[in-house]
Design a protein that fits this description.
The chain is α/β, with parallel strands linked by helices. It is built from eleven helices and seven strands. It has a four-stranded parallel beta sheet, sandwiched between helices. The protein has a three-stranded antiparallel beta sheet with strand order 1-2-3, with no helix packed on it.
Length: 239
């Protein structure tokens, strides 16, 4: 299905998950366009507003990035380096919830809200969409950046889920990615928005590529940034 005018598409929200997302030909998948940004299913306007009011704590840590940039890799290492994460204590297998996600079969906003600080969470939110409480509490953020060509390919693979009605045409997808017709907005805007913030703002920047080349060195840098010492033997085991 292409956004060429050859096919008429009826926008219909996916009510099965309580989602307000509907297929949009310009995005080639189901999205919710709300508050100046495209959100993926299952998302509702109420969830977006709830995330804005999420009560972050100074001890919370978030792994942030544009999708397919290494958040899972980083969060798994952090989840296993420490035992005091409130979120990991109430999720199976030290699973790290995604702050702006809501689904009956995946930990997200509700688990993040119920857990006690310090909480380890992940997010794909642009910097200007972080909860309002972040400005005052400055929970620490590890922001990961990855080569956009690799992000483009990996993101396409992830979106091939039947309920998204994803248009898998390669050329169409690449053009949408370049034009920023993706959930969470354009890749470049996302990266530059976070790059304006540094360690004085509570944000540590690492790249997917340098973490692959020097995982031990980068994780030692992350541990120092968090100010949460780790037993050397445990550090080596997790690495």
């Amino acid at each position: 299905m292409h956004a060429t005018g050859r096919i008429t598409v009826t926008l219909q929200a996916d009510a099965s998950l309580g989602s307000e997302c509907a297929f949009d030909p310009a995005f080639g998948m189901k999205v919710l366009q709300y508050d100046g940004l495209a959100w993926g299913p299952p998302t509702t306007r109420q969830l977006v507003e709830d995330v804005k009011r999420f009560p972050l704590h100074a001890s919370d840590v978030l792994v942030a990035a544009f999708p397919k940039s290494g958040t899972n890799w980083m969060q798994i290492m952090l989840a296993n380096l420490y035992d005091d994460w409130g979120t990991c204590a109430i999720t199976p297998h030290r699973r790290v919830p995604q702050l702006e996600y809501a689904s009956p079969d995946m930990e997200g906003y509700e688990v993040s809200l119920q857990a006690q600080p310090p909480r380890l969470m992940k997010t794909h939110l642009p910097a200007d969409r972080m909860p309002a409480s972040w400005k005052s509490h400055r929970s620490k953020v590890i922001y990961m950046t990855r080569n956009p060509k690799d992000v483009c390919v990996s993101f396409r693979h992830q979106l091939q889920i039947p309920f998204l009605q994803f248009d898998d045409d390669w050329d169409f997808w690449v053009q949408r990615f370049i034009d920023g017709k993706t959930i969470y907005g354009p890749w470049l805007d996302h990266v530059l928005g976070w790059r304006r913030l540094g360690e004085n703002d509570g944000v540590l920047h690492v790249t997917y590529e340098e973490t692959r080349r020097n995982q031990v060195g980068i994780m030692r840098k992350v541990v120092d940034f968090l100010g949460k010492p780790v037993d050397p033997r445990r550090f080596d085991e997790v690495m």
